[in-house]
Fold this sequence. Notes:
Number of strands: 10
Enzyme class: hydrolase
EC number: 3.2.2.9
Domain Nucleoside phosphorylase: 2-237
Bound molecules: adenine
Keywords: Amino-acid biosynthesis, Glycosidase, Hydrolase, Methionine biosynthesis
Protein name: adenosylhomocysteine nucleosidase
Amino acid sequence: MRLGIISALHEExxxxxxxxxxPYKLIHGMREYWTGKLWEIDAVCVLSRIGKVxxxxxxxxxxxxxxxxxxxxxxxxxxxxxFVRVGDIVVAENLVQHDMDASPLFPRYEVPLTGLxxxxxxxxxxxxxxxxxxxxxxxEMDKAIDPQERAVFALQAPRVxxxxxxxxxxxxxxxxxxxxxxxxxxxxxxxEMEGAAVAQVCxxxxxxxxxxxxxxxxxxxxxxxxxMRFVKSVAxxxxxxxxxxxxxx
Length: 249
Ligand code: ADE
């Protein structure tokens, strides 16, 4: 196994490169790819930057140039449903590009000529990510997030959810928009800007992949402020611990 680990932003991958054994940096296509060993696993860590094209470019490079056999995307997301709260963790089972619309040529959300609107993540990876996230919340949350920060975000017993994640080239920050997305895409748990692009690349190249997201905001008018605060003080800690739990399995 060679695991490619992608995040959009530095904060979402904090600590992972530092934890690598024999890290080696290679620059390609304006991105730094760090190869090395992460808890006994052969890994490549990279920041994709934000958006579907950036993520697709990065995922393709990981497979074609770095020979990864599996891809894991870790980062933050906006909540797509009232019962998914800030601080919860969402593991994607399916991903949809919520801004894809080639209708009337193709059905709404369908990626033309793939026949698919929803791309499934690897079942085994989703299962292992769910277990890793649950173990982190049960055993290591206290170590990762100090009580003061938890209070700022009113994080009460965060939970792990599995289901549909929507991706689009849009930071969702209006209540009407997130409600419309939720109504159009039944089961939507979270919105972000990269996962479904990685999903399409991995589907086309036959690479198993997983996407795990910590909820940073409610994709409403407060989303930008919540996101900025959360990504720095909380999300940054989740990734390291969850990926360590995942690699240890
Ligand atoms: N990532 C984190 N929060 C988000 C939001 N509200 N919209 C899109 N991507 C996000």
